[in-house]
Design goal:
19 helices, 74% helix
Length: 374
């Protein structure tokens, strides 16, 4: 679409989206947040040098200390017994890194960027570039669907799904989310193979996205059209997950469940609690409560489902591919929650924004947007 053929509404929508993306990118670089996971990811970036645990521990904490305020560093190292133990014990810290090394592509990109930006700066640059990527992807998607006039609705969706919050964190959530959204939108557009490549990259960044790819594969087979890209991504992603998990020393599902939802044990050396249905049920209920009280993803999901129902009730046309993508997201979120209950918004951002963008384009192409010249 050439700029001289764009309606005033499309121009205004594009400008709003670009300005919003630039603002979030600037904030991510100038005012990043300091979360404890960042220390472990920094260690993963530094571990490529083959340093022993004590040196790796010292280097990781020193790098974080140099890139955070004294108050932030104090919180990261003395806020609770677990963080105190990790700061004091290099071996205990090293035992945790299996949780983080499985994010293979995120660590690898960090290692590539580290010589120019340092290990902490590299992770923050990845977040900033991911912001630009999500903004550009949204802009291109709306242009392709001839829906730029409703770009303000896409901005609202990004705000509601926590785009600004996840952008400020040095975690792989936004980076992987970029490829999740790209993969789903490419499927909707009919570009299955390209979508499959994007989804495979998402798995290599965060292996838990394997759940989405598996659900998309099954739903596409059941509803049609079949996504050959999703099938290929699932097979290759599953193989990669097995290999990467073993190579990274991931402690396994139940240990991660316990560590995430039950207790932050000071070290994983020799830690192997027996499975307990009672413990699982208690953690499941607690995580639902925390999701309702402390986070917003559950409310945003309910809102998006309501809006989808409104569009259906008002006879808006959903293509078969859009129905497959939306159904896959709706099945994936509860499925992932059952497997490993997690309450923070950042774990659901990618699914919610993909769902939101599809709804925005369904509305935009079948309605008369504000500022339309028609």
């Amino acid at each position: 679409m050439n700029t001289h053929t764009m309606t005033p509404g499309a121009v205004a929508g594009a400008l709003i989206l670009v300005l919003f993306t630039a603002t979030v990118c600037a904030v991510a670089l100038v005012f990043p947040t300091a979360n404890w996971d960042m220390i472990a990811y920094v260690a993963g970036v530094l571990q490529g040098t083959g340093t022993p645990p004590d040196q790796l521990h010292a280097q990781a904490f020193e790098a974080v200390q140099q890139n955070t305020s004294p108050g932030e560093f104090l919180v990261l190292t003395a806020d609770r017994p677990y963080r105190i133990a990790q700061y004091a014990d290099a071996d205990a810290f090293a035992s945790m890194l299996g949780f983080y090394r499985v994010k293979l592509l995120y660590i690898e990109i960090g290692q590539i960027l580290a010589p120019w930006f340092g290990p902490v700066g590299a992770l923050r640059v990845i977040s900033a570039l991911s912001v630009i990527g999500v903004g550009a992807l949204t802009l291109l998607w709306l242009m392709d669907q001839k829906c730029l006039a409703v770009a303000p609705l896409a901005v609202i969706a990004l705000i509601l799904t926590g785009f600004g919050d996840v952008a400020r964190q040095a975690t792989p959530d936004l980076f992987s989310g970029l490829f999740v959204v790209a993969g789903l939108l490419l499927y909707v557009r009919g570009q299955d193979l390209a979508g499959g490549v994007a989804l495979l990259l998402a798995i290599l960044i965060r292996p838990d996205h394997l759940a989405l790819v598996g659900v998309l594969m099954v739903v596409s087979i059941a509803i049609r059209p079949v996504s050959k890209g999703a099938i290929g991504a699932f097979v290759l992603g599953l193989l990669a997950y097995v290999v990467i998990s073993r190579a990274a020393g991931h402690p396994g599902w139940w240990v991660q469940f316990w560590f995430t939802n039950v207790e932050y044990v000071p070290t994983l050396e020799g830690f192997d609690p027996p499975f307990s249905p009672v413990v699982y049920a208690k953690a499941f209920v607690q995580t639902i409560v925390r999701s309702i009280v402390e986070e917003r993803w559950l409310g945003v999901l309910a809102l998006l489902v309501f809006l989808a129902a409104v569009l259906l009730r008002r006879n808006f046309d959903f293509t078969r591919r859009e129905s497959v993508a939306l159904s896959a997201v709706l099945v994936t979120i509860p499925a992932k929650f059952v497997i490993l209950p997690l309450y923070p918004d950042r774990f659901y951002f990618a699914y919610l924004i993909a769902f939101g963008l599809i709804l925005v384009t369904i509305y935009g192409r079948q309605s008369r947007p504000v500022f339309s010249s028609e």
